[in-house]
Amino acid sequence: MDGNENPYDLVVIGTGGGGFAAAIAASRRGGSVAIVDRGTLGGTCTNTGCIPSKALLAAAAARHAASDAARFPGISSSHGAVAMDDLVAGKRALVDRMRASKYEDLVDAYGWDFYAGHAAFSGEPEHPVLDVALAGGKRAVVRGRHYVVATGSALWTPEIPGLAEAQYLTSTTAMELTELPESVVVLGGGYVAVELAQLFARLGSEVTVLARSRLVSHEEPEASRALEDALADEGVRTVRRAVPVGVSRQPDGGVIVTADVAGQRRGFSAARLLVATGRRPVTDRLGLDRMGVEVGEGGQIRVDACQRTTNPRVWAAGDVTGGPEFVYVAAAQGEVAAENALADTGRRLDVRALPRVAFTSPALAVAGMTEREAHASDIACECRVLPLEHVPRAIVDRDTRGFVKIVAEAGTGRIVGVTAVAREAGEMAASAVHLIESGTTVADLAQRWAPYLTMAEALRIAAQSFTQDISLLSCCAA
Question: How many CB atoms sit inside 10 A of residue 377's CB?
Answer without folding.
Answer: 11
